[in-house]
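Model it.
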Amino acid sequence: GYDLYLDLLQRTVEDLKRKAASGEEAPAEEEIDPEINLTLSAYIPERYIADPDQRYVAYRKISAIAAPAELDDMREELLDRYGQLPPETENLLAVMELKLELRALKIARLEQGASTLVFTFLDRTPVAPEKILILMKRSRDRVRLTPEGKLVVRADLPTPAAVVETAKKILQAVR
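Modeled.
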């Protein structure tokens, strides 16, 4: 609840500053916050950052990432301050990377099933339909598009790395 309040407050302040700087009156297009439901552990373990306040600050910084360069900077900061990243934290950063790509492509949701990844596109997605058709043709019945705008990808997903890698490949293919 409190994190959501801070996020909303931060976005409102940024919007107001942007409007003031540009003299703009029209509302900016609302940025989406893609929902990601993957079966992988993505967090900062207590054994990695023992101090709860420092862990909270790290989470806040990670949640505020808006560009791939910021993600790289955060990874370097964590490495410098706390040492080698544990797998759970690598997963957290990988999920943030996916979120950035989903946001850019106007994909509202990424969900993992037993052997599927499901990407839910918004109507205003910049993804060209031709890209999806090419992906479907190349995939030989492993990829299908539902009438609701969901891209369903059947894949072997035995590890968290396989889940992330498959999602990245699909996003790259439709970009």
